[in-house]
Amino acid sequence: MNIFRFGRPGYKVVVGLMLWVLFPSVLPAQKASLSKEVPTVKVDRDVAGQATWIWYPGDYAIWLANKMQNRRTERGAFLPVFWKMDSHYVLVEFHKDFDLAAPETIHIAAEGRYNVKIDGKAVTGNLNEIRFPAGKHRLSLKVYNQAAVPAIFVKGDQVRTDSSWQVTFEDKEWIDASGKASDKSGTTYQQAACWNFNSAAAKPSQFHLPTRPEVPVKKTSLSNGNWLLDFGRETFGYIRLKGIQGSGVVRIYYGESAAEALSVDSCETLDTIQLTKNVQNFDTMTASTKAFRYVQIAPAEGMQIGQVDMLYEYAPVTERGTFSCSDMLINRIWDVAAYTLHLNTREFFIDGIKRDRWIWSGDAYQSYLMNYYLYFDQPTVKRTLFALRGKDPVTSHINTIMDYSFYWFMGVQDYFTYTGDSALVKTIYPKMQSLMAYCLSRRDKDGFMEGLPGDWVFIDWADHLTKQGALSFEQLLFCKSLETMATCARVTGDTRGAVQYSQLAADLKAKLFDVFWDKDKHAFIHSLFKGQKDETVFRYTNMFALLLNYLNAQQKEEVVTHVLLNPKVQAIHTPYMRFYELEALCAAGKQDVVTREMRDYWGGMLSRGATSFWEQYDPAAKGDAQYAMYGRPFGKSLCHAWGASPIYLLGKYYLGVTPTSPGYGTYQVKPELGGLKWMKGTVPFAGGDIEVYCDRTKMQLQSSAGAGVGTLLIESRRKPSCSQGKIQQVGKNAYQLQLRPGQQYVVNYEAI
Amino acid sequence: MNIFRFGRPGYKVVVGLMLWVLFPSVLPAQKASLSKEVPTVKVDRDVAGQATWIWYPGDYAIWLANKMQNRRTERGAFLPVFWKMDSHYVLVEFHKDFDLAAPETIHIAAEGRYNVKIDGKAVTGNLNEIRFPAGKHRLSLKVYNQAAVPAIFVKGDQVRTDSSWQVTFEDKEWIDASGKASDKSGTTYQQAACWNFNSAAAKPSQFHLPTRPEVPVKKTSLSNGNWLLDFGRETFGYIRLKGIQGSGVVRIYYGESAAEALSVDSCETLDTIQLTKNVQNFDTMTASTKAFRYVQIAPAEGMQIGQVDMLYEYAPVTERGTFSCSDMLINRIWDVAAYTLHLNTREFFIDGIKRDRWIWSGDAYQSYLMNYYLYFDQPTVKRTLFALRGKDPVTSHINTIMDYSFYWFMGVQDYFTYTGDSALVKTIYPKMQSLMAYCLSRRDKDGFMEGLPGDWVFIDWADHLTKQGALSFEQLLFCKSLETMATCARVTGDTRGAVQYSQLAADLKAKLFDVFWDKDKHAFIHSLFKGQKDETVFRYTNMFALLLNYLNAQQKEEVVTHVLLNPKVQAIHTPYMRFYELEALCAAGKQDVVTREMRDYWGGMLSRGATSFWEQYDPAAKGDAQYAMYGRPFGKSLCHAWGASPIYLLGKYYLGVTPTSPGYGTYQVKPELGGLKWMKGTVPFAGGDIEVYCDRTKMQLQSSAGAGVGTLLIESRRKPSCSQGKIQQVGKNAYQLQLRPGQQYVVNYEAI
Question: Is the pTM of this model over 0.80?
Answer without folding.
Answer: yes
